[in-house]
Known about the structure:
Elements: H1 4-19, E1 23-31, E2 35-36, E3 39-40, E4 44-48, E5 51-57, E6 69-76, H2 94-106, H3 115-126, H4 135-147, E7 156-161, E8 174-177, H5 186-216
Antiparallel strand pairs: 1-4, 1-6, 2-3, 4-5, 5-8, 6-7, 7-8
Amino acid sequence: MNLRKPWLLLTILLLAPAVHADSVTMxxxxxxxxxxxxxYVSPYYATMNGSPVTLFCVDIAxxxxxxxxxxxxxxxxxxxxxxxxxxxxxxxxxxxxxxxxAWLISQFPTNSSDYVNLQYALWNLFNPSLAPDSSGSxxxxxxxxANFSSINFANFRVVTNVAPVYLTGQVQEFIxxxxxxxxxxxxxxxxxxxxxxxxxxxxxxxxxxxxxSTAQK
Length: 217
């Protein structure tokens, strides 16, 4: 009996969920109540794979609805990150814009009275022709450009609906701050997959050895 193909199939089946485990299930839950220009502004509240998470919107060109559920990819914004799954990563200085957005997000906890201007600044980074504008938001944009490199981006993630990604007609793009260890990274998943392949290879070798020993008896 040849066990090679069954073990190969088992390995593929085990790997299938791992390869896609960096996509998450998001559900929009609600808003904080602050409004400006007819818009509810960040922070917003959601769940990610069933766990509570806070969203900060960077995308005024799209929409999200109460209790909406969608599949999303998470992208890092550390230097050298791959932004191919994001909506705006291909813009000139796209990574720097996401990093400036992260700096603005880091200001929300200590500036709760200025959510509207902070949100306008976030929207103006990526959609300046659509976003509301104010002197306050322009001041925040200037501060973000001058200071964004001073923070650590390791726990920030861009939340983008799964591909294909279009500029309009889809779910808004957000940034979240992920606690360390909450979401498996693609590199970790790849290592897990490599381990499964190694186990399957070892079992095939042992099976082959066992079959040879039986045949020689």
